[in-house]
Predict the 3D structure of the following.
Amino acid sequence: MSKQLISVTINGKKVEKAVESRTLLIHFLREEMNLTGAHIGCETSHCGACTVDVDGKSIKSCTVLAVQCDGSAVLTVEGLADKGALHAVQEAFYQEHGLQCGFCTPGMLLRAYRFLQDTPAPTEEQIRMGLSGNLCRCTGYQNIVKAARSAAKKLQEKAKQPVAA
């Protein structure tokens, strides 16, 4: 199988790597880049465990080829924290117990992150709709919704704070 050189910025770091043209992004991230946060769930795009952010959009990495991401910026759950400080979404999921087994959590975090970027002050109904493409078999979703609502409030408060010079 022939390989193609791709250039991708992953979690802020530019990476150039030769990949087989049939390599799925999820396998590239997990096997080539050792970024194992995104999980392989259904491999049919139904569960969302493999959700990552590509060029400002949530995508299910089990249905996208790595070569399709050539030139793109990819954000994985490993890239959410900043210098060891949890992102507001991660912090809210922790505080509101928006997880149980943790299998869906990386994809849920990335989807919540992107959803809140696009909808900074969502209603509960909008949150439920915005996260509906990601499945959780454990939580019953109530704490996930609470976590997304809490993260939205944290992000709104942070946006109101003056930027230090």
